[in-house]
Amino acid sequence: MRNPLFYAKILLFGEYGIIEDSKGLTIPYNSYKGTLTFDENSQGKISNESIRKFAAYLEENFPGEFDFDQMKSDIEEGMHFDSTIPQGYGVGSSGALVAAIYERYAANKIETEQGISKEIIAQLKETFSKMESFFHGKSSGIDPLICYLNLPLLINSKTDISTIGIPAQKEGKGAIFLVNSGAPGETAPMVQIFFEKLKQDGFRKTLKEEFIKYNNACIDAFVKGDVNPLFSNLKKLSTWAFLHFKPMIPQRLLDAWQYGIQTNSYYLKLCGSGGGGYILGFTKDYEKAKTHLQDFDTEIIYKF
């Protein structure tokens, strides 16, 4: 068996907004990774059982599209997904597994060696969306897509996604970092809360007129490397989320979230669907921000 590694991902901008056609920006995060293997470990049996159920779902929904004979044979031999990607933390644990299964067993795999066009991205996204729905009930397909391509992706709309270059990291004081809320979250209940909110005219209006405006401005500034407009829009985005996404913000982070806005020492935002797992932090002075967040584990994902 080939042994490709599939890495975690981070949705820097666009959580929930991409459901309503805002822009999104997602990047690979190579500190966490997973691979299909037969090596024995304590989590192997749990993963093997999960893949067995996933295989049954695929056989029902993708007849003839995967090498199911080989997949079943490998499952019987104890194949599992050996992964360091934490589950329920918003960094693509199920996306990486979906990408690995597609890479290994897809009968007519879309090859990306000759280049990655928007058409190829759209085809992959459609397949991955249907595959990952097994885990979340509904999936955009973005997580497996970035885990499979391992390249930053700019989401302009549901039908317009492309690879994008982002500014190189610098050894400055500033950082984008992860904040560990201390417990995993579940995607499906958080997404359900969002859809319930969308039924309210007032929420839908402020999402379109404020959230999407700030979100898109953050992406434009980040891609250009413009720090000041990035942070002025991050403050608006973080404040908006504190007011309107409060059910998705882990309870023990509410005070820290508000403190960052009040002092301008850092700004927090959701990393994926929220409810637990990781939260994203942005600061111009990481060491200073860390002193205010000393009750939480943090890790840098990007320096500037």
TrEMBL record:
The keyword Nucleotide-binding applies. The lineage of its organism: Bacteria, Pseudomonadati, Bacteroidota, Flavobacteriia, Flavobacteriales. This is Mevalonate kinase. The keyword Ligase does not apply. GO terms for cellular component: cytosol. One of its GO terms (biological process) is isopentenyl diphosphate biosynthetic process, mevalonate pathway. It comes from Moheibacter lacus. GO terms for molecular function: ATP binding; mevalonate kinase activity. Keywords: ATP-binding, Cytoplasm, Kinase, Lipid biosynthesis, Lipid metabolism, Magnesium, Nucleotide-binding, Transferase. Residues 55-148 form the GHMP kinase N-terminal domain. Pathway: Isoprenoid biosynthesis; isopentenyl diphosphate biosynthesis via mevalonate pathway; isopentenyl diphosphate from (R)-mevalonate: step 1/3. It comes from the Bacteria. It holds the Pfam family GHMP_kinases_N.
